[in-house]
Amino acid sequence: MKVTLLGTGTSQGVPVIGCQCEVCRSMNPRDKRLRTSAMLEWDNNRYIIDCGPDFRMQMLREEIDRIDGIFFTHEHSDHTAGLDDIRPLYFLQDDRPVPIFGLPRVIADLEKRFNYIFTNENRYPGAPRVAVNYLESHHNITIGGKTLTPLPVLHGQLPILGYKFDNIAYITDAKSLPDSTIKVLKHIELLIINSLHHTPHNTHFNLEEALIAINIIQPKQAVLTHISHHMGLYDNVNSQLPENVKLGYDGMTIEI
User: Fold this and answer.
1) DSSP state of 110
2) How many domains does the chain have?
3) In angstroms, rounded to a whole number, what is the distance separating the alpha carbons of residues 78 and 116?
4) Which of 84, 95, 142, 217 has the greatest CB tally within 10 Å of its CB?
5) pTM score of the predicted model
6) CATH number, residue 99
7) Domain residues for 183?
8) By C-alpha distance, which of 72, 52, 64 is closest to 7?
């Protein structure tokens, strides 16, 4: 299985509009961060986790002409606002509805915001169609011969989902992990997990908290994502991390 980090930034992305900090002005491509998203590929399968406002640019950059579905972690705009940009993929795939997966609450929110995609009445002819799949925490499903486990995660007080595909886990926007999630993740091969910056935050892990979670879970390797410009320059931060932990960057690929 191959994982590609399509975006590793926070809700504002990096550089942040109007910011003149050294990270936002950096010429290092690894300091440029689109909104957080990932792509998983195995055999002839290709799935996206979250499609934020940079989804179009991410698909163009990776030269994608087909996807098999989208998994949503939660309903916030930096993880969902690109849903309309599935249109060309929908048309390229012979007008087959694009499967989407998420909590019932999240799907209901999408139905309100993108009503023209979900409605069957007076449909706009250029609108794509989706096939809805509701998920529940710890209720496994089988996708392309792989076992997918939706994992409960707390984004502050908001219950959201992380995802475990066989021996790979993807968690973003976590502030805490229930014991049931930690138990499932113990000694996993690859853990991708959010780390905002260095100071405490109400709804996201900072670097210290992410490293504590990694130490508890003990994955073989961990990659940090959902990174703010306040984290610091990529080269500086990455060089100070533990041996089995890396700072993620846009376009990073990991094969397991």
Assistant:
1) H
2) 1
3) 20
4) 217
5) 0.96
6) 3.60.15.10
7) 2-255
8) 52
